[in-house]
Design goal:
This protein is an alpha/beta fold. 41% of the residues lie in helices and 14% in strands. It has helices at 18-28, 52-57, 71-83, 93-99, 103-109, 134-140, 143-146, 161-184, 194-210, 246-255, 270-275, 277-288, 293-302, 313-316, 320-325, 366-372, 377-385, and strands at residues 9-13, 32-37, 61-65, 86-89, 114-119, 189-193, 229-233, 238-242, 307-309, 328-333, 337-342. The chain is elongated, with a radius of gyration of 25 Å.
Length: 389
């Protein structure tokens, strides 16, 4: 398929989730991704290689079994570097240097290659040598301090926000560096970390401190600055509503039977609504509890007020709009049969599908890749005998 990145070869030296998230963006858009794995490896997350998580994370790749601790294995990697456009890794900074494929070594071998790195805390500095995981970054980046009900303990988000953000930010950086290489002929070292990505994702909450000098706290299921905007119980579930001011506030309060609320002297400005948040939300909550979620969605949508139910995952994929968006694409795994994988969130005209092949088993493409690098069948067998592959 002639996908936008079909002329790009990527070496995937990633583990865990942040690095593979980056590589998946490139693979989805057609890059020839060669995932390098140690011989006999099971997976990168400690779970079932044929499980849903691994299959979702490593689709659209080829797998090369390679022992990077052996001289012959490192030689193979460097021959692969010669033909590659991008190398992505997320090891602790000292590890790649010890194995001999840090940025300087790779750049000397192929100056055009874009080298992408994700670490826990950065490539250098006081914490540069530390390993990092998502929840630690959620805590150190401030997310846990603003998540949860007011007055409760710090709370992690339900998804690995810093892992996913780091992967997406690095993918953007790699694409920028590839564009720059087209102009200059030289690749760059593109870096991010879980901590940097988490702080960047804090966005306006971080700016409330750096610009306003205000330390944000927990706001629970309600927006930290706009009122009323949040999650309210209904007669049979929960409803998210966004109606913080202006026409939307008037339409919302009229629809729920509180038409005088916007002119109430306690609530007639955003500052007053914020100061009297608990009282206002209690009035709204009292009204929304009287009807079922679906009824309120119909009523508020007709009034032009943004709203929506709170779904479990099974309900997400039963929603008619989600069905219309076709958020899953099917592939067939040789052992598992048909799999419904979540497609890339980006669509573009002429795109034939971002999910094409299932995640490979270890070494599925070793002989294929080595042959493309010029190794003869006898040389491949010799590498096997040396435990290099």
């Amino acid at each position: 398929m002639d996908l936008p990145l079909s002329d790009i070869r990527v070496i995937d030296l990633t583990i865990a989730r942040a690095g593979p998230t980056c590589v998946r963006q490139l693979a989805d858009w057609g890059a020839d991704v060669i995932r390098v794995e140690p011989p006999g490896s099971r997976d990168s997350l400690g779970g079932d290689r044929h499980g849903s998580d691994f299959q979702q994370l490593h689709r659209n790749k080829r797998s090369l079994s390679l022992n990077l601790k052996s001289p012959a294995g490192r030689d193979v990697l460097m021959r692969l570097v010669d033909s590659a456009d991008v190398l992505i890794e997320n090891m602790r900074p000292p590890v790649k240097e010890r194995l001999g494929f840090g940025y300087e070594a790779v750049h000397a071998r192929n100056p055009r290659l874009v080298y992408g790195s994700i670490s826990g805390f950065g490539q250098d500095g006081p914490y540069g040598d530390r390993g990092g995981v998502d929840q630690i970054a959620q805590g150190m980046g401030g997310l846990m301090s603003v998540t949860g009900l007011p007055g409760t303990e710090p709370t992690r988000a339900g998804i690995p926000v810093s892992d996913l953000a780091a992967g997406l930010y690095l993918a953007i950086g790699v694409l920028v560096a590839l564009h720059d290489r087209d102009r200059t002929g030289t690749g760059r070292w593109v870096q991010t970390s879980l901590l940097e990505s988490m702080i960047a994702m804090m966005d306006f909450q971080a700016a409330r401190w750096t610009i306003d000098g205000h330390v944000p706290g927990q706001a629970g299921n309600h927006h930290p600055t706009n009122v009323p905007m949040g999650c309210f119980a209904t007669a049979d579930g929960y409803l998210n509503v966004g109606a913080a001011g202006g026409r939307l506030l008037r339409a919302f309060t009229a629809a729920i039977g509180l038409p005088g609320l916007p002119d109430d002297p306690r609530f007639d400005t955003l500052a007053k609504r914020s100061a009297n948040r608990a009282e206002l939300n209690a009035l709204v909550a009292g009204r929304l509890r009287t009807r079922a979620t679906a009824e309120w969605v119909t009523t508020l949508t007709e009034a032009g007020v943004p709203c929506g139910p709170v779904y479990r995952m099974d309900e997400v994929f039963a929603d008619p709009q989600v069905r219309h968006l076709a958020m899953t694409q099917d592939v067939r795994h040789p052992a598992l049969g048909p799999l419904a994988l979540i497609r890339n969130a980006v669509r573009m005209t002429g795109e034939p599908g971002t999910v094409r092949t299932p995640s490979p088993d270890p070494g599925d493409h070793t002989a294929e890749v080595l042959t493309s690098l010029g190794y003869s069948p006898a040389q491949i067998e010799e590498l096997r005998a040396e435990a290099a592959i």
